[in-house]
Amino acid sequence: MVSRIRSLGIKGIGGYEVSVECSPAQGLPEFQIVGLPDTAVREARDRVRAAIKNSGLKFPVSRLTVNLAPADTRKNGTVYDLPVLLGILAATGEIKEPPADCAFFGELSLAGELRPVRGALPMAFAAQRAGIKRLFVPADNAPEAAFASELEVYGVQSVTELLEFFRGQREIEPAPPPRIEHTARRLPDFSEVKGQANVKRALEVAAAGGHNILMVGPPGSGKSMLAKRMVSILPDMSREEMIETTEIHSVCGLTSRSNPIVDTRPFRAPHHTTSAAALSVCALLARADLTVLRDECEQLEAQIEELANEHDHLVIDFETQYNISRLAAWAEETPGLVRVEPETPEIAAADRAEIVPTEDEDGGWAKISDAIFSISEYFAPPAE
Fold first, then answer.
1. Each residue of 119-178: pLDDT tens digit?
2. Dihedral angle at the C-alpha atoms of 68, 7, 156, 91, nearest 10 degrees?
3. Are 147 and 245 in contact, with CB atoms under 8 Å apart?
């Protein structure tokens, strides 16, 4: 008898449906998992075998083949432990095959308890798109998966609890639909910054108009300090932004049962030695958020231009005294990027604005407040 259990997987930062097929056969005892499994998936054989025995069930002494379809997509992680266990029990007649409108995912301990996995929210939305009605997940993942409002999400503590539920011996209440509320939390505030009035005004204009802003200056001039506080003046995240940001954080393992949703715009400050690949991941984590780049070389110019085109609010923080002339030349050639020089202050309607400080006699760079002093009339509040 071949059993089929519906499950989910993660590909990139999105979820997709996986069908777990199990077929017992005569022959020497062997347990194989096929369908491009990685090491963590192959190790599920030992976790599943121990979980079945420690849950008071009988593990079949036969040749077992488990296929994870679609077989041409690489499977990774521990999300398939629970559906593999259910597939084996259903194929060998230990339990009835679960209804077709149910899906399962979760990691197993050797004692048969369910442990949380990454990517619960994108997998829940994938289940919703696939027409699944009931989703059984580890209890710690239930608050996060419940944000897929069209699903009944059941948080399960152990294999025994799940089997008793299908036998009608136990009731499991579905996780209630969560309410998205903005958590009141202490954020870095502009009131903590003494002076720098012109820069504060510039950041307010960028936040209100959805512009990007480029800050250039030496270490200690206050760029990062001010950029960190820009989060506190950006508008609250919408439900769509929260869900999209949480999906990315969930895949990265940055959510928990106590904090299932990201409701505050995260702040990212990658180091100037960050590789292009790591910078792309950082940009994903900052989706609909605030990104600060700290760089002292010119090799990230193309990446900066790409990020500026993708994000509504992007603060680029250069701690450098080198290659400023090349950076300025790049800024002049970049479409849609307004370069504001102290000698000829010009502000135009654009998605991005650059503030370039002036060079002093010693070859250093003035503070940001001095750098934009000549355009303070524009950034200053209108006269009454």
1. 999 999 999 999 999 999 999 999 999 999 899 999 999 999 999 999 999 999 999 887
2. -50
3. no
